[in-house]
Design goal:
The chain is mostly helical. The chain has helices at 14-31, 35-63, 78-101, 104-107, 113-146, 153-159, 163-185, 187-196, 203-216, 219-223, 226-254, 261-264, 281-299, 303-315. The protein has a domain at 225-333. The protein is 70% helix and 0% strand. α1 (14-31) packs across α7, α2 runs antiparallel to α7 (163-185) and α6 (153-159) packs antiparallel against α7 (163-185). The termini are far apart.
Amino acid sequence: MKGLDENSILGLSTLGWLTFVFLWIVQVFIVSYGMDMIRKYEAFAGPIILVTMITLAIWMFFQAGGSIAWSTHNSLVGGEMWRTIFAGGALWVSIYATFVLNFCDFTRSSQSKKSIVRGNFWGIPINMLLFGAIVVVLAGAQFKINGTIIGSPSDIVQTVPNTLLLVAAALALLVLTIAVNLMANFVAPIYALTNLFPKHLNFRRAGMASAVIGLVILPWNLYNNPTVIVYFLGGLGALLGPLFGVVMADYWLLRRAKINVPELFTEERTGAYFYRNGFNPRAIAAFTPAAIISLAHRLRPGPRTAVCLLVVLWSRPRSHRLLPAGRPETSVP
């Protein structure tokens, strides 16, 4: 088995290819049965992951003597500490922003607004706080045991001497990987592709197309480059922030939370959302300067940000509205 992990084929070892293809096939199989199968798998995976991680955290806690380390010997302090915290928080927001923008893909089949609010409450703040506590216990216990700073759950799994817990944790990570990838990297592309090519693609075909694209781009080569990850997530967050702001301003401030649903599906040039050949120039005008400022600050912080800000403010359009002038908003709640 060790020999299978020592070569490299397109950046991945033979063992890596075997495991990747196995997971790829499992996910394609699940996606081929539609969104309902994805929902059932997520409902199956959630409790398994939670119970396994809690069990592992309790075991690690007692292995560390009933207490954990709260800091390292070279912990950051002062401004540098807060800068790192906020930078990490910004990257975390960037990750969740992708889910916010395709939120409707997960809520379109909800029975009521109340069920959406309840699901979000238990699934985001409560769930994240619980897993955050688990991570603190695991990281603190591991550091106290042997001074190792872990960077991912797999780091802890590799050090578990208990065979039963090792197998359970490895299987839980396997289930978790599939669950996260289905939600983050399959659902949104599938609906995007079916919306772009409704005459040619259904859910299953779009899922296959997404799977093939995910294979062709060789994602591990990107993941293995920390610089690419940081700049990609940073750049993505810098763009998603202004985009989300435009969407929220349009929905809450201009439309007063009202949408003309039938008009969303018409291709008539007189449609309320046709704008100019399907593009809203004023929304683009609002997004562009904000995106430039955000990208300049994220990728080139310092004096260039101020210069960019002055240029954008000098050239910004006079109109601040997102809707074309003179177009009535015939919307329904």
